[in-house]
Q: What sequence folds into this?
């Protein structure tokens, strides 16, 4: 069965610090997709990134960057120069194909607090 | 022009009542889902429909019954509500191909008192 582990339950840093959120996954599929979602205090789920298992290139989007390493089954997320608005719960997820649907298996989430 | 819309946003009801949550998507996606987020923020799939056909049915009490009148709508009906049903319920949709991601609705916070 597929599994996603976010070992860090809560992280608290001071504004402008860099912070890395860890994500480790387990799957037997050779083709899979990994996701990160942000859930701010308002409650909606905001899509951040999707990564194909065949694409191990790191990605950078502004202050956000993602490090995908198949060898260690990890898909870590780094926020550079954190800001108070980055405070949220962040979820890593793995897509499992099931009969024409994509079942997302989520990690437990990491609550990130950025203090001014 | 919201992509995936759920109603209501908040629902407070007494134990034993029956309630429904509605979901509509205007993205032309083939597949729709219901996820439950519990009080510890854990997100887990409940159901998935592909073009009105039920294809994923996780271990969910049969008090929960999804209904998909067409591929743009997936409603969730809950009978005999219990305190433990209190959660945030998210609707989502996705296209057929796996290389496209999900689009989530904004969630419905259900509180059973």
A:
């Amino acid at each position: 069965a597929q599994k996603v582990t976010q070992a860090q339950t809560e992280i608290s840093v001071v504004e402008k610090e860099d912070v890395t959120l860890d994500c480790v996954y387990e799957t037997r599929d050779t083709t899979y997709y990994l996701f990160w979602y942000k859930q701010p205090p308002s409650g909606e789920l905001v899509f951040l990134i999707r990564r194909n298992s065949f694409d191990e290139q790191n990605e950078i989007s502004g202050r956000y960057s993602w490090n995908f390493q198949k060898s260690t089954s990890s898909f870590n997320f780094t926020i550079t120069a954190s800001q108070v608005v980055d405070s949220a719960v962040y979820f890593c997820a793995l897509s499992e194909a099931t009969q024409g649907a994509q079942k997302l298996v989520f990690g437990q989430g990491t609550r990130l607090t950025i203090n001014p | 022009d919201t992509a995936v819309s759920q109603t209501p946003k908040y629902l407070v009801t007494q134990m034993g009542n029956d309630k429904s949550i509605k979901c509509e998507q205007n993205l032309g996606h083939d597949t729709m889902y219901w996820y439950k987020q519990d009080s510890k923020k854990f997100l887990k799939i409940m159901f998935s429909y592909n073009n009105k056909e039920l294809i994923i049915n996780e271990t969910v009490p049969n008090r929960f019954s999804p209904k998909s009148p067409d591929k743009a709508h997936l409603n969730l009906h809950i009978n005999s509500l219990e305190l433990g049903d209190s959660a945030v319920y998210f609707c989502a949709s996705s296209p057929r191909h796996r290389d496209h991601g999900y689009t989530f609705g904004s969630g419905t916070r259900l509180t059973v008192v």
Notes: The mean pLDDT of chain B is 92. The two ends of chain B are 34 Å apart (CA to CA). Chain B touches chain A at residues 30-31, 33, 35, 40-45, 48, 50, 55-56, 88, 90, 94, 96, 98-99, 101-104, 106-107, 109 (CB under 8 Å).
